[in-house]
Amino acid sequence: MGLDPLVVVFDACVLYPFHLRNVLVQIAVDRLADARWTDEIHDEWMRGLVANVPALSMERLQITRKLMNDALPEAMVTGYQAYLEAITLPDPHDRHVVAAAISAGASVVITWNLRDFPAREMKKHGLVCQTPDIFLTDLYDKARNYGGM
Question: What's the pTM value of the predicted model, to 2 decimals?
Answer without folding.
Answer: 0.93
